[in-house]
Amino acid sequence: MADFGPAEKIKADDIATVFRSEIRADVEALKAKGITPTLVGFLGTGDVSAKKYSEWTSKACEADGIKFEVREVGLARVCLFTKH
User: Fold this and answer.
1) Beta carbons of 44 and 3 less than 8 angstroms apart
2) Of 17, 39, 53, 81, whose CA is between 20 and 30 Å from 59?
3) Is CATH 3.40.640.10 what the domain over 12-82 is classified as, yes or no?
4) Is 70 helix (H, G, I), strand (E, B) or coil?
């Protein structure tokens, strides 16, 4: 087995801060041009975990100035969108 040395714990917040700063700057540049960045999430089932995840996504988008919409669609409609 390979020896990779001691592990180091890295906080996700430290890494995310850099990316979020870039995202916020890009969002502001788009808004200055009259463009509102929007992320749309599709929920195909009534899964409680998926709904909770969409709530967290909404909060993160809001914090970065991105509009977030959730659209609840039936499972059959999701299958139509994903068929190859």
Assistant:
1) no
2) 81
3) no
4) strand
DSSP characters over 2-61:
----------HHHHHHHHHHHHHHHHHHHHHTT---EEEEEE-S--HHHHHHHHHHHHHH
Q: How many residues does the chain have?
A: 84
Splitting the chain (84 residues) into consecutive groups of 10 residues, what average pLDDT does each group show? 80 88 95 96 89 94 95 70 54
Show the tokens assigned to 66: 């991105």
Cα angle 64, 66, 70; round to 5: 125
Which pLDDT belongs to residue 52? Answer: 94
Prediction pTM value: 0.69
